[in-house]
Amino acid sequence: MMIYALYMLLLTQMAHGASSEQLRIQLHVGMEAIEQGVDPALALAMADVETGFKHCKARRSGARSALQVHKSALRKGELPKLLLDPAWAVKRGVELIKIYHAKAKGDPALTRILYVCGYGYKKSCSVETLKRIRFRWAPVAKKWRVNALSEV
Known about the structure:
This protein is an all-alpha fold. It has helices at residues 2-15, 20-36, 40-51, 79-84, 86-103, 108-117, 121-124, 127-143.
C-alpha cells in the first residue's frame, strides 16, 4: 500500500515537470521512508522544503544532502559519512524525521519545527522563525498531501 502511494505521488511530480534527477532523489527518499516505517509523503515534503530534491546542496552551517542533515544531529564518528555519502545522509535524515514525528505525537507541523529547530525549539526559535517555518511548510505539506493535525 505504501509503495503504491509513493508511486502515485511520484507520478504527480512527473506530470508537474520534475527532472529525472529530482525523481531519482524523490524515489530514494520515499523508499527509505517506507523502509523505516515513515510516511513517504512526510519525508518527501521535508526534502522538498529543505532543498527541492538536490543532493549537492550544502549550507554554510554544514547541513548536507536532500534532507539537510546538520552535523549537530550526528553521532560520534558519523561526520565523514555525512560528507561523503548522500545515500547515508538521506537515511539519517529519515531516521531524524521518524524520531521527531514520534516526539511530536504524529503532528507533521510540529515534526517540521523539531526538524528545523531541535527539541529546545521553544527556547531556541524566535516567533519570526516559527512563522517563517509555517509559511514555507504549509504549501509544501499541501502539495505532498501531508495530513496536518495542527497549525504551527
